């Protein structure tokens, strides 16, 4: 078991930087998710850790051992692929046993370990079936078994759940997490799905355009996103982001305004900002009680999306002149609101985030 | 079940079946005619009205053997087998390299390889003839093998490259993680998966070589005569020996048919080759 550290790692394809100056550490036994939209450099990062892609500059450390010049086979890692990458002409047993066979481990010790892993993954009954024709979930289990069978130092998961049906996804998600904790194996998970990252990983690293945006525990990223990209990428429905001006202790947007506490005010310079507030921190009430504390704006509901235990309301704000912005509110439901209702909107000022309009950075999170 | 339900019902089905049978009959009639000519006495060959019934004769066969046509058959067979085998041995790694590895000027080189098939063969055969005359490769087994390899190799590499590209690269990456070298990965992961593609493509190469006339005619000679080149010898000063021509023609046809029948499964599978996906 060892930690993984990326130290000023660059990956260049000609003129393009696929990964730019990456500094990131995954502690021993930890599961770290690399999260980002497609093309953000997360898969490239994973492949550099695996040794499938070379490092343009910088160094990757497994524990205190530099590995960037080592061939994939010399790094003692295992990988689980999006497309399973099973050998189609072998059975389940042979696929799981393949890494042992390659290393010349045969006979009783090998079959005992293969048996254990199959047991762990609930694949015992399928041992002699060819992998061709198994369901996606079963194939991915076999692929995880192949990764676990030889106790690697590191397991790299490359979008392991993307091709699975929703129910198998949830099931396998829990199972991967359980096995990872059971074996205490250092793991990196690449995914574009925030639910997956938040559900499985101890810490999440968000990447965009080859640059690491923020690393932290899922709750940290949710509550204190370092910049607009992370704020927008994490959370469903996404955070409301509204252009506004900050002066004195008041934030004035298109059709709404709030007052900050004096303690917060001292830390913020005046200027153009983007205010962010999560839909669950927006309240909606009948217009006649507006004007009291928290009532920040008036508007009209233009869309109501019922979610069973909650309703997601989209409100068009009334601006003094012309149409104002839109705001999404998520409130415990079911509610009786309908599209067309006039409402008063309240914002939980304590939860309001302030981003610099130019640098897009959260002004209250230390870089 | 799917087959049964997709079959057209009743009279429409009958119509299509009839159409297919008629089409097949038209297509197969020349072959049937050639087969009947093999055993037709010369008097009945062009009799009008057509004699459908006649006493079969083996005269044509004995003439063909007397004239040593079986040597041409052997030449053709060895030449095509050897040149196709060499194409597979050289072309498979080449196709894989073109599909997987980054190298300078790869695309240009690839187009250049295909260039040998872009020009009409008759344009290529003249420089071939001049070069071979200089280096003494005319009428030699080696010369024809090389010539066949040039045009089949380009075709083979071109087609097999797309088979290689269809293989999921993750399989090779997974094997690399286990510590296998590039050569081991090629031999033990890529090759087994490519087998159907290799069979399908090499069969096509074999057939191209087998049917080839121009190069064999120009670059061959008395000592190396392939089967297609031997046929015009039956146009003699005493007239055209139609029966013997039919015998040689049929002989030329049979191996191709046999190969296609035996390997049909591989060929179809090869042409629809794809990765295992869930």
UniProtKB/TrEMBL annotation, chain A:
Transmembrane segments: none annotated. GO terms for molecular function: ABC-type transporter activity; ATP binding; ATP hydrolysis activity. Keywords: ATP-binding, Cell membrane, Membrane, Nucleotide-binding, Translocase, Transport. GO terms for cellular component: ATP-binding cassette (ABC) transporter complex, substrate-binding subunit-containing. InterPro entries: AAA+_ATPase, ABC_transporter-like_ATP-bd, ABC_transpr_MalK/UgpC-like, Mo/tungstate-bd_C_term_dom, NA-bd_OB-fold, P-loop_NTPase, Transp-assoc_OB_typ2. This is ABC transporter ATP-binding protein. Residues 4-234 form the ABC transporter domain. Its main location: membrane. It is a peripheral membrane protein. It comes from the Bacteria. It is found in: Cell inner membrane. Belongs to the ABC transporter superfamily.
From TrEMBL, chain B:
InterPro entries: BP-dep_ABC_trans_perm (IPR050901), MetI-like (IPR000515), MetI-like_sf (IPR035906). It is a multi-pass membrane protein. GO terms for cellular component: plasma membrane. GO terms for biological process: transmembrane transport. The lineage of its organism: Bacteria, Pseudomonadati, Pseudomonadota, Alphaproteobacteria, Hyphomicrobiales. Residues 73-263 form the ABC transmembrane type-1 domain. It holds the Pfam family BPD_transp_1. It is found in: Cell membrane. The keyword Cell membrane applies. Belongs to the binding-protein-dependent transport system permease family. MalFG subfamily. The chain crosses the membrane at residues 14-35, 71-97, 109-132, 138-159, 197-220, 240-263. Part of the ABC transporter complex MalEFGK involved in maltose/maltodextrin import. Probably responsible for the translocation of the substrate across the membrane. The keyword Chloroplast does not apply. Keywords: Cell membrane, Membrane, Sugar transport, Transmembrane, Transmembrane helix, Transport. Its main location: membrane. It comes from Ancylobacter defluvii. It comes from the Bacteria. This is Maltose/maltodextrin transport system permease protein MalG.
């Amino acid at each position: 078991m060892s930690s993984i550290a990326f130290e000023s790692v660059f990956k260049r394809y000609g003129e393009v930087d696929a990964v730019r100056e990456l500094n990131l550490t995954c502690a021993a036994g930890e599961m770290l998710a690399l999260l980002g939209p497609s093309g953000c450099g997360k898969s490239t990062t994973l492949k550099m850790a695996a040794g499938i892609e070379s490092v343009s500059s910088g160094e990757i450390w497994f524990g205190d051992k530099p590995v960037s010049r080592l061939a994939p086979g010399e790094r003692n890692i295992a990988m689980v692929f999006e497309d399973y990458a099973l050998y189609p002409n072998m059975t389940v047993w042979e696929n799981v046993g393949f890494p042992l066979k390659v290393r010349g481990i045969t006979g009783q010790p090998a079959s005992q370990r293969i048996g254990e892993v199959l047991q762990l993954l609930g694949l015992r009954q399928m041992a002699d079936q060819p992998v061709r024709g198994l369901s996606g979930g079963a194939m991915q289990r076999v692929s995880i078994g192949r990764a676990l069978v030889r106790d690697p130092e590191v397991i790299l998961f490359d979008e392991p759940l993307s091709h699975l049906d929703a129910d198998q996804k949830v099931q396998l998600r829990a199972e991967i997490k359980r096995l990872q904790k059971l074996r205490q194996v250092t793991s990196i998970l690449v995914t574009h799905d925030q639910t997956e990252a938040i559900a499985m990983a101890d810490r999440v690293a968000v990447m965009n355009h080859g640059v690491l945006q923020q690393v932290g525990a899922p709750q940290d990223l949710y509550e204190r996103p370092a910049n607009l990209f992370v704020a927008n990428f994490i959370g469903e429905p996404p955070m409301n982001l509204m252009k506004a001006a900050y002066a004195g202790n008041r934030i004035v947007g298109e059709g709404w305004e709030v007052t900050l506490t004096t303690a917060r005010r001292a830390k913020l310079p005046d200027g153009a900002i983007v205010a962010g507030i999560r839909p669950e921190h927006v309240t909606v009430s009948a217009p006649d009680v507006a004007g009291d504390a928290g009532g920040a704006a008036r508007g009209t509901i233009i869309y109501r999306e019922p979610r069973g235990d909650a309703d997601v309301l989209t409100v068009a704000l009334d601006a003094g002149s012309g149409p104002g912005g839109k705001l999404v509110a998520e409130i415990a439901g079911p509610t009786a609101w309908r599209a067309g209702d006039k409402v008063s909107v309240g914002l939980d000022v304590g939860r309001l985030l302030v981003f610099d309009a130019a640098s897009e950075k959260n002004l209250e999170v230390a870089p | 079940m799917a087959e049964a339900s997709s079959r057209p019902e009743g009279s429409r089905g009958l119509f299509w079946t009839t159409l297919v049978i008629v089409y097949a009959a038209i297509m197969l009639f020349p072959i049937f005619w050639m087969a009947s000519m093999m055993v037709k006495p010369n008097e009945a060959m062009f009799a009008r009205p057509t004699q459908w019934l006649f006493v079969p004769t083996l005269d044509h066969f004995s003439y063909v053997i007397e004239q040593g046509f079986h040597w041409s058959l052997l030449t053709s067979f060895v030449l095509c087998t050897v040149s196709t085998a060499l194409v597979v041995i050289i072309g498979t790694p080449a196709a894989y390299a073109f599909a997987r590895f980054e190298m300078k000027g790869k695309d240009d080189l690839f187009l250049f390889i295909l260039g040998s098939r872009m020009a009409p063969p008759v344009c290529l055969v003249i420089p071939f003839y001049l070069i071979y005359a200089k280096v003494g490769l005319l009428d030699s087994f080696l010369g024809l093998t090389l010539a066949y390899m040039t045009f089949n190799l380009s075709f083979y590499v071109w087609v097999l490259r797309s088979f290689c590209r269809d293989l999921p690269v993750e399989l090779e990456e997974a094997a690399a993680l286990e510590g296998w070298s590039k050569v081991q990965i090629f031999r033990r992961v890529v090759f087994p998966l490519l087998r159907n593609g290799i069979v399908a493509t090499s069969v096509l190469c074999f057939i191209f070589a087998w049917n080839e006339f121009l190069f064999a005619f120009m670059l061959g000679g008395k000592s190396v005569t392939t089967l297609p080149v031997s046929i015009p010898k039956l146009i003699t000063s005493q007239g055209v020996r139609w029966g013997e021509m039919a015998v040689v023609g049929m002989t030329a046809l049979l191996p191709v048919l046999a190969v296609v029948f035996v390997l049909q499964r591989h060929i179809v599978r090869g042409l629809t080759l794809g990765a295992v996906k869930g």
